[in-house]
Structures are given as C-alpha cells and as structure tokens.
Amino acid sequence: MQEDDGVLDPSMLLLTVLAYGAFALKLWALVDACLRPQAAYVAAGKLTKLAWVAILAAALLLGGGDVLGLLGLVGTVAAIVYLVDVRPAVRELRRGGPWG
C-alpha cells in the first residue's frame, strides 16, 4: 500500500476502503438475515430465510471484500438487494405495520 518514497497511493487507499466497506455490508446483511424470523419472509412474499442466508453467506465467503472481481460484485449487489428490498419488508411485518 506504500510506494517507494513512503507516500500512500490514493487509488490503493480507495480500494482498501471500498473492500472493507463491501465486507462490512455483506456481513451486516448476513447477520440481519439470520436474526429475522422465518415466518416474516414468507408473509412478505420474499425468498425463504434459508435461501437468503445461503445467498448472503456465499456472497461473504466467495466474494469477501473483493470489489473488482465478478464474485465480489455479485455478492455486494445481493447484499444491497437484501438491505434495500427484503429487510424493510420483513422488518415492517415484525413490528406490526409501518406505525409500530
């Protein structure tokens, strides 16, 4: 991550930050999917809990924090889809509606 003159390369620093961010995003999605009840996924009309946990675990294990590789990109997209689409639907059902 350092050049010969001791100065940090900005592009490598950016890739490192993106890699840690992608890893954290995938880990957050996987932990959240594990904590939600199975019935909420079915009631929301989404894939089953087992399917989402398997997808997100594969994304984390195969892609890790890779942001430039195909598996890393696909895994990051899967985590984003879960967090933006599935999580709000499952979360809303658990609280009993949009107002609590």
Automatic annotation (TrEMBL):
Pfam families: DUF2516. InterPro entries: DUF2516. Keywords: Membrane, Transmembrane, Transmembrane helix. The chain crosses the membrane at residues 12-31, 51-84. It comes from the Bacteria. This is DUF2516 family protein.
